[in-house]
Write a structure and sequence with these properties.
Blueprint lengths: L1 H26 L9 E7 L3 E3 L2 E3 L3 E8 L3 H30 L2 H4 L1 H17 L4 H60 L7 H17 L2 E5 L6 E5 L4 E3 L6 E6 L5 E6 L8 E2 L7 H37 L51 E2 L4 E2 L1
Antiparallel strand pairs: 1-4, 2-3, 5-6, 6-7, 8-9, 9-10, 11-12
């Protein structure tokens, strides 16, 4: 009779635990990052009576999450792509509004200039035509300066957003390191509390929205290590690195990975941060905005040089050769704020039409033994 009571008691106990788990699932139905849990029961070890094994009921083996690690990995990749494209689209939209013809009127400004040039060519002695021409020439300068200023403002805004995203990323990295510590402290016999694993995976999703990552989960402890796709460690077993957003005097920026918040030095990982909101903002500043700025500069240089060349071929009202209308600034190098050398570069533009619409960089390579 006692065996029957024990068997019944074991069945009631495991069902009671099942009800508790079901209640836990219902209570957390709207909890962000929560995965439904289910109980796994097994037959209890039998008792032997002589040569016969007699069953004594059931017992709880484990509580597991309804979770697919492959799907979770794919979700993190999608979240990283969404974060990247969301930030990049936002900046492209801003650039589109900035260059919108209705508000900027670049085409109309050029049209007014060439119309004034034709009028002046037909009436070279007209003071009124001359005045209109020079006003049209000044208007083009104003348009280029306006667009350049607005691009600078947009770049400042992007870098401010990037600095904010870096701060948020640091908080998430530290949260994950803290969860790792809790997993290590509270895990028993290789079984980790499902709620802690949910917190771990939710943190991984949040990090993936910020940048593309690779993960390594310890099969024994379930602690996770996080690295960039280039292999730079962001989170170890129970420690988190710190990202530092640093601006140079030339307006450029770098993102360094430091061992901790008090470290004075770090590793530049700007170009290792691909994907996610960080990657999107880096590409927006160093790719999209810089590309438009370069094309704008090339357009202005080629236009001004062409107008100067054409104007210098003519004669003024006294019969003297024409002078340059536009004063072009001398080309100069912008030095990286991290440079330790003292080399100075002399730069000259011989043919503006040969300029490419991208940045020119000169780097000294020790391996190559010269400038590349």
């Amino acid at each position: 009779m006692s065996n029957l009571l024990n068997i019944g008691s074991s069945a009631l106990n495991i069902q009671r635990r099942g009800l508790a788990i079901a209640g836990h699932n219902i209570a957390n139905a709207n909890s962000e990052g929560y995965h439904r849990q289910r109980m796994e029961g097994v037959a209890a070890a039998p008792q032997y009576q002589g040569s016969h094994a007699i069953g004594i009921g059931t017992q709880l083996q484990s509580v597991n999450r309804v979770y697919d690690s492959i799907v979770a990995g794919q979700l993190r990749e999608v979240m990283s792509d969404l974060g990247y494209n969301d930030e990049l689209k936002s900046v492209f939209d801003d650039i589109g509004r900035l260059l919108d013809e209705d508000s900027l009127g670049v085409s109309q400004t050029f049209s007014d200039f060439f119309t004034a040039a034709e009028d002046l060519s037909a009436l070279p002695d007209s003071s009124a035509a001359r005045e209109v021409f020079f006003e049209a020439a000044k208007s083009i300068v104003g348009r280029f300066n306006l667009v350049g200023s607005q691009l600078d403002d947009l770049d400042i805004s992007v870098q401010q957003r990037l600095s904010f995203e870096v701060s948020e990323t640091n908080q998430i990295l530290q949260n994950l390191a803290d969860v790792n510590t809790q997993i290590n402290n509270l895990s028993s016999g290789g079984n980790t509390a499902p709620d802690l694993l949910d917190r771990r995976d939710h943190a991984l999703e949040a990090i993936s929205e910020k940048l593309s990552i690779s993960t390594i989960i310890d099969p024994n402890t379930q602690m996770v290590s996080v690295r960039t796709t280039q292999g730079m460690e962001l989170v170890g077993q129970s420690t988190a690195g710190v990202l530092a957003f640093q601006q140079s005097t030339d307006g450029s920026f770098h993102i360094q990975l430091k061992e901790n918040a008090t470290s004075s030095t770090g590793i530049d990982i700007t170009h290792s941060l691909d994907g996610g909101r960080l990657g999107g903002l880096i590409e927006a500043s160093q790719g999209a905005i810089e590309g438009v700025r370069n094309r704008l500069g090339r357009m202005a240089t080629v236009f001004a040089e062409s107008v100067n060349t054409q104007h210098q071929k003519g004669l003024d009202r006294e019969g003297s050769p024409g002078k340059a209308i536009y004063n072009l600034p001398e080309a100069s190098a912008v030095y990286d704020g991290d440079n330790t050398g003292t080399t100075a570069l002399d730069i000259a533009i011989d043919d503006p039409n040969a300029l490419l619409a991208n940045s020119y960089q000169a780097r000294y390579s020790t391996a190559a033994g010269g400038w590349v």
